[in-house]
Amino acid sequence: MLEVRLSFSYGRREVLKEVEFSAQKERLLAIIGPNGAGKSTLLKCMVGILKPRGYVKLDNTNLLKLKPRDRAKFITYVPQSSIPEFAFTIEEFVEMGAYATRGDIRDALERVGMWDRRKEFVTNLSGGEYQLVLIARALAQGSEVILLDEPTSHLDINHALLIMALLEELKREKIIISVMHDLNLALQYSDEIILLNMGKVEWKGNTKELNSEILERVYGVKARIIEVEGKPVVVAEV
């Protein structure tokens, strides 16, 4: 069980205000909310990139109190996909993620279907392929918790669905927490949702309990959640 309670400020500006929640295996947790809600900041605080007030406890161990190399054994962060600047091979790139923990690089790349391409350069990959390699690097780290910041952003539908199917598989063995911009993917694949708004938890709970009134209050637009072939879909009302 992962337990989180965090606050964070840039100078006098409070960005996160006692954001509190828990997460566990088998329950993919999606963090949603409008732009500027504090979603990416929350992940950076959880992994120790930023220095928040509060705690991130995994089985009662406060990960924020650990040294970065020791923390990496428990929690890892997959940032938003961006174009890599250096021509590392896929294998070299994933190996950098495994440095602190000496994880299994081959197993990580096989999990995302990229082992046979390990000698290719990351600079030649498509956005979707590069996102898979980023996830492989997180897997090679071998940590129990994986945080992902909008893993399907800017991807075509094929790669977006591939990424979500992979996360659905990984949640059986790891705690998976993902910031998600696409509300429909969040509704269809997550088990729990946290809705952030202006640095505070506006709503949290079982995904099936999220309703259109809550979305309208936070996003400021009229919308309905309907079922299409048994799956929830957000539809804007004109």
TrEMBL record:
SUPFAM superfamilies referenced in this protein's UniProt entry, alphabetically: P-loop containing nucleoside triphosphate hydrolases
Provenance organism: Thermococcus paralvinellae
Single GO term (MF): ATP hydrolysis activity
Pfam families for this protein: ABC_tran
Keyword Transport: yes
Protein's name according to its UniProt entry: ABC transporter ATP-binding protein
Source domain of life: Archaea
Gene3D superfamilies associated with the record: P-loop containing nucleotide triphosphate hydrolases (3.40.50.300)
PANTHER family: ABC TRANSPORTER ATP-BINDING PROTEIN (PTHR42794:SF2), HEMIN IMPORT ATP-BINDING PROTEIN HMUV (PTHR42794)
InterPro entries in UniProt: AAA+_ATPase, ABC_transporter-like_ATP-bd, P-loop_NTPase
Domain ABC transporter: 1-223
Organism classification: Archaea, Methanobacteriati, Methanobacteriota, Thermococci, Thermococcales
Keywords: ATP-binding, Nucleotide-binding, Transport
Keyword GTP-binding attached: no
Listed SMART domains: AAA
